[in-house]
UniProtKB/TrEMBL annotation:
Stretches assigned to the Glutaredoxin domain: 28-78
Domain of life: Bacteria
Pfam families for the chain: Glutaredoxin
Cited InterPro entries: Glutaredoxin, Thioredoxin-like_sf
Species name: Methylophaga aminisulfidivorans
Signal peptide extent: none
Membrane-spanning segments: 104-125
SUPFAM superfamilies, sorted: Thioredoxin-like
Keywords: Membrane, Transmembrane, Transmembrane helix
Name of protein: Glutaredoxin domain-containing protein
Amino acid sequence: MAPETQLKNLIQSAPVVVFKSPVTEMDALRRALKARDIVFEEIELSMGDSDSRALFQELKQKTRYTFLPQVFVEGTFIGGGDAAIHSNALASPHKKTNLAAKKLIQLLGYAGVLPFVLFTLLAYVTELRDWAINANIAYGAV
């Protein structure tokens, strides 16, 4: 597989992808990612392997950044380890989850109003009036 194709596949392999070498200092970056509950994948590029060297050359050409680690979020290059730690881009996958959860909770809250609306509308139907009023009172008591 060509290095550019392989690099593209690796960059898309996880929400956050970190390219590193065997000697890259990763402790701070790992802690930051784990503290934010972000799923990430580490890709090790060993300079002793010709395929890894070719991949690293392709990576440098793509990012115009010559150091490791190099961090990609959702396929977009963010920078090195320090830049990634201080980047808002690492917060966005987590915030998207929170935003979706907040919307779901809000919708479920509105869904709780539906029985009141239904029972109130049924109260206007003469044959179901007493039952609907009692049902509205009972639902409100819960």
